[in-house]
Structure formats: C-alpha cells, structure tokens
Write a structure and sequence with these properties.
About 15% of the residues lie in helices and about 30% in strands. By secondary structure, the chain is of the alpha+beta class. Among the domains are: about 230 residues, Immunoglobulin-like, CATH 2.60.40.2550; about 140 residues, Jelly Rolls (Sandwich), CATH 2.60.120.260. A hairpin with a 5-residue loop joins strand 7 and strand 8.
Length: about 650
C-alpha cells in the first residue's frame, strides 16, 4: 500500500489490470446517471468494480478491454473508495477520497483556457480559494492534437497525473472562468463539483469538430481547403495543432464516455471573419459532442465579451454578428443556455479581467438547471411594434422587470474592471446601447426608456419613419439594460438585413474574357518578395504567386486622379486577397518612409474554381512607384493566381 492511487495486493508477472487515466484518487463521479468505468486487463478476465454498495462485473474482450457502469449514484461529500479487482482477486486497484456530485467539461479558446494567476483579481481571492468539495482535472495545457480520434489521455504535469482538490496552488494553474464557476456552483448547490479542463487558445470552432462532419457540410469547405494556413506548422501553430478536427480528436474524444453533467463553452473570437457560419458551427459542436457521449447534456455558452480592437473589421461590428449567432444557436437547441457578459469586456484586451463575472453567471445558470426557482435568464427580445416615429420592444425572461444599471468597462488594458483611465461608462437611469434606422437601413444612435415591466420604447429625432432597432450592436458596445435579477440583456437586432462585408470586400462576378473598356493592363512588378511563376489555368495565361505578394506598375500619374482597377483572378482557395496602393491621401502622400501605401478594398475568395473579375474604384490614386518600386500590391496568406490587372484613370483637375 505504498501508492496513493492504487493498492496491489498480489500480482503474478503475467497479470495486468488498468484503469483509464480519468479514474484516480480525489475524483468526482457524476451523480444520478449512468457512470461508465473502464480500463484494460488480460483477455477473457472477469473484472469487478465496487463502489457505494454497488458491485458490477464484466468479462474483458479479446483485446483486454473492459467497461462497466455504476447506476444513479447519490451526491455525497463523504470520501469513499472505488475498488476494481480481477476474477481471482489477486489483482486489485483502489481509488481513495472519491466523491459524488456534478462534473463539468470546460472547453473553448483562450478566455476559457487562461489560468487564474494571469488575472489581477487573483491576489485578492487566492487566500479563500480552497475547497475540498471542488476537484480539478487538467488535460495538458494547450490541448492535444491528433490526426485521428484517439483514446490516449495526456494530463497536465503540474497536476501530477491525478484529480486534485482545489487549493490556491492548483487553482492558480486552472482556468479562471472555470475556477470561479466551480467555486460558486459548489457553494450554491452544496454538492461536490468536478471540473475537466480541455481547451486551447486562438482556436477556431472547426478544430473542435469531427472530420466527417466537416467533410459532409459544403459550408465548411473553406476549412478543409489546402489554402487554410492552420494546416501548416508555424510559431503560433506548433505541430499544426489548429488543423481542423485535431483538437476534437486528441483532446475531447479521449474524455468520452466519462460521465459529465454538462459543458461550459467560451469560444468564438477566432471565427469572427465568418460570422455567417458560426451558428452552424456552434450547433454542430453541441450536437457532435452530445453524440460522442450518447446523451443530451446541458451546454452552457458564454457570449463574446466587448472588445474594440479587431483591425480587419472596418465596420466595427463583426463580433456583434457572432454574438447573435451564439444567441440564435442556443435559442434553437434543447438543454442549452447562454451567459451574456456585455458588462465584462475591455476595449484593448481580448482577455478581459472580469472573469469572476463570467464564472458566477455560468454558476447561476448551471444551478438553475436543478432549482427552477433560481432566476438565471437574461432579457431577450421577443417582438416589436411600430407606432408613428416610435418602436416598442417587448422582452421575455425579465424576471421581476427591466431596469438600468451602471456599467463601467476599461478602454485600456492592465487594470481591474472599471478602474482604468477614462473608462467607458453607462450610468444607471439612462438606458443606452440602442440604434434605430429607417428605410435607408442606416442606423443612428437612439433614445430609449423602459415604459413597463416588459417593454422598452426607442426613437430618434433623426428617424421619422423607423423600420428596425439594434441593441449592443458593436464590437465594443456600451449598453445597460438588465432584469431586476442582475442579468444583462442579450444584444439583438429586429431586422433581417444581410450581413455586410466587415473587411470592405468588393463584389465580384464570373469572367473569362477581357473587355475592351477595362483599360490598359498594368505590368507585373519585379520586386524581391513578389516572386511569381507564369501558368495557364483553364486556358488562360496568368501569374501565380510563389510567395504571398504580387506587385503591379502603372504609368506615372502626375495629377490627382481617380483610378478604376479591374482585377481578373482565379477563385481558388478561401483567403482574401488584399490590395494596397500609392495614394494622395495625407498619411501616404506626406510620408517619406519607403513603402508607404494605403490599404484598399479586399477581394474575398470563395473557392469556386472559376475565373472572376472585380472592379475597384480608387478615388485618391497617386502611382509614383512608392510601393517598393511599384504602384499596387496584392497580397494574401496563401498563394493566389492573377490573370491581369487593368487600369483606367480620370484626372480630377480641369
């Protein structure tokens, strides 16, 4: 009895008995449902598992695999032992200090992954962060990648290959969101709580989906295309760990069928570029994970926090569309819930400090699953009524009614919530965050007020015939509509307007023939990092980049002019092609720095495999060879093919 995890009473050298690595001392077993227990032994051996007066047996298969199930255990804070023995009783393993309660899988990207000791609040709370009824199990930090579904489980070495009781030392190296969630939930429910840490920062949803699901949905073709940079190893993608499905295969798949109460999930920032797909992606994660476990466990989603710095988003609203996708996905599914954190973001930091708000709201939502008297819902838009120049909005999940609250979020990073310089503040009593539009679909800031327990009135003196309202519709919204129970309203829109292009991408059309009024062809620039090869694609001569850039040179424009550029490109791959050009705008024209140029429109590739053309207007073209000796650069994160670039100019001077 020298090991804290196992007691070997006797073993012949040829005998063997093993438990899956999820089963260790200090573990939590899931209450009130089937609890699989599995492992390995010699083929055709009888295995018996004993726990809480249950005794179940099975015979290993020809490969030595075995599995049994304990049934409907009652929650218990009393430490007990789980014993596994072979048919002759000569080999036995005993797990000690085992409790029964609720087990939650904690998944997502960096806002779920980042550890407690990375946040300023940790110094304030760590002295009280011990709880013998909260147990932590951490898959290797950063996750495990596998090309195929794998049952190999890799535990974070700091956790010593075992479940650990929550102490400040172990909580410091566990997820901050999950830590606050688990501590609050244990105190609220009074049952033991187990947390499984399985996540990785900067990951897209497709990394967490099974390959066969990605392959059968044409919408997901962009993720499986060879142009996807996540297939290639890089400094930020070691071992190409972000390859589609690899984290599902290596990090999630090994956990099933370990019995869990449910999942808490915080992810979506990395999918903002294709917000139009995110409702499907999130739905498919929920559906496929439930299929893997074999039952519809609760799935609790954290809606994205406010964050202002999204450099490629020219409209400042890409994250709003992801939040809407998260909301719509959860709304359409059974046994799924949403946590709104519009008051817990930061302008400059994608990893906001207020992780205790996230954890506590998740805990309230989780506790409400078993106690319907707990008010955990956030106000949700239900319907609208237009009367003259006003729009009246009705909400559900208002509890005892709607109210405003004070919201203070930092614009700068590195401060406790609301304590940074010049924070963004919405005061109590003044309802903020609404915009309104007329038939022109141009949204302007709106005035709003709560007029009943369920209803908000919205209007603007600049919109006499209103058509639609949006709330919290920005990357970094400042909004303060709550229910009396303290839950913020989810951002929403009443319209069904099409999603815009966040990157300023331009409309393209199929093309295979040169049109005379396109203008004159520009010459390919001979620039060092613009290497290319001449190819023929579908019978058309073209230039294919060997790197990521392609330069073009125009006749010098000596007077201010508008330029019409026509680009003929092959629509293979999915990465956008970006344009930069020499401009007369002040920031470019007055600059003497080598290579000064201005970002232009974006050409969005859709992988159709066809030749396409796009016409681009540049109202401030200069074209004086200021761009590395060229006038215009096309670039992408993967190779692309251009047939020609054509130019027409019109002088702005008489």
């Amino acid at each position: 009895m020298t090991s804290s995890a196992t007691t070997r009473l006797y073993a012949e050298s040829s005998q063997h008995l093993g438990l899956n690595s999820l089963f260790t001392d200090n573990m939590i077993l899931q209450r009130e449902q089937l609890v699989p227990v599995w492992g390995t032994a010699l083929p055709r051996t009888k295995i018996t598992v004993e726990f809480a007066r249950q005794r179940v047996s099975t015979i290993t298969d020809a490969h030595g695999q075995w599995s049994v199930a304990l049934t409907h255990l009652k929650a218990s804070e009393v430490p007990r032992s789980l014993c596994v023995s072979s048919s002759n009783g000569l080999i036995q393993q005993t797990l000690n200090n085992v409790l029964v309660g609720d087990v939650w899988l904690c998944g997502g990207q960096s806002n779920m992954a980042q550890t407690m000791d990375r946040y300023l609040i940790w110094d304030q709370v760590k002295g009280d962060f011990s709880n013998p009824y909260l147990r932590l199990f951490k898959i290797k930090e950063g996750g495990i990648s596998s090309a195929d579904p794998s049952k190999e489980l890799v535990i974070d070495p700091f956790f010593k290959n075992t479940w650990q009781s929550c102490t400040p030392d172990f909580a410091a190296k566990f997820s901050a969101v999950a830590g606050f969630f688990g501590m609050q939930l244990q105190q609220d429910t009074k049952v033991p709580i187990g947390l499984l840490y399985a996540n990785r920062g900067a990951t897209q949803a497709n990394s967490w989906l099974p390959r066969e699901l990605l392959e059968t949905n044409p919408k997901y073709a962009r993720f499986l295309d060879p142009s996807n940079p996540n297939f290639k190893e890089s400094k930020n993608n070691p071992g190409a760990i972000r390859t589609p499905s690899h984290l599902y295969n290596g990090t999630i798949y090994p956990l099933a069928p370990f019995a869990i109460k449910g999942v808490i999930w915080y992810q979506g920032e990395s999918d903002s570029r294709w917000a139009q797909l995110y409702a499907d992606l999130q739905t498919d994660i929920i559906t496929s994970w439930r299929a893997l476990w074999g039952y519809e466990f609760p799935f609790l989603v954290v809606q994205l926090a406010p964050h202002a710095v999204v450099p490629w988003d020219q409209l400042g609203e890409a994250r709003a569309w992801v939040r809407d996708a998260q909301y719509q996905s959860v709304k359409a599914m059974q046994n799924a819930g949403l946590v709104v954190i519009t008051d817990a973001g930061e302008g400059q930091d994608i990893h906001p400090q207020a992780k205790e708000i996230v954890g506590h709201r998740l805990a309230t939502l989780a506790a409400s699953l078993d106690d319907p008297t707990i008010e955990a819902g956030c106000p949700k838009f239900e319907k609208m009524l237009v009367k003259q120049d006003r729009i009246f909005l009705r909400f559900t999940d208002v509890g005892d009614g709607l109210e405003t609250r004070r919201v203070a979020m930092n614009r700068a990073a590195g401060f406790l919530p609301g304590q940074g310089p010049e924070p963004a503040i919405a005061e109590v009593g003044t309802l903020t965050g609404f915009t309104i539009c007329g038939e022109d679909q141009v949204f302007v800031p709106a005035l709003a007020r709560i007029i009943s327990q369920y209803t908000v009135e919205v209007f603007s003196p600049h919109v006499s015939v209103p058509v639609a309202v949006r709330y919290g519709w920005a990357n970094f919204p400042l909004c303060n509509l709550y229910n009396v129970n303290g839950m913020p309203a989810s951002p929403f829109r009443t319209d069904a307007f099409p999603m815009p292009s966040f990157t300023g991408s331009v409309t393209t059309s199929p093309s295979s023939n040169i049109v005379s009024d396109w203008g004159s062809p520009m010459q390919v620039g001979n620039v060092g990092d613009g290497a290319y090869e001449e190819v023929v694609v579908d019978g058309q001569s073209a230039f294919k980049t060997e790197g990521l850039f392609l330069y073009f040179v125009a006749p010098e424009i000596t007077k201010p002019a508008t330029a019409t550029i026509v680009v003929q490109y092959h629509d293979s791959g999915y990465d956008p092609i970006r344009m930069l050009y020499d401009s007369t705008s002040d920031e470019v024209y007055n600059g003497n720095a080598h290579g000064a140029w201005k970002p232009g429109p974006v050409i969005q590739r859709d992988g159709t495999g066809r030749w396409k053309t796009v016409e681009i207007q540049l109202p401030d073209a200069r074209f004086s060879k200021a761009c590395n000796g060229a006038d215009l650069r096309l670039q992408s994160t993967s190779s692309f093919t251009i047939s020609d670039v054509y130019l027409k100019t019109q002088s702005l001077l008489n």
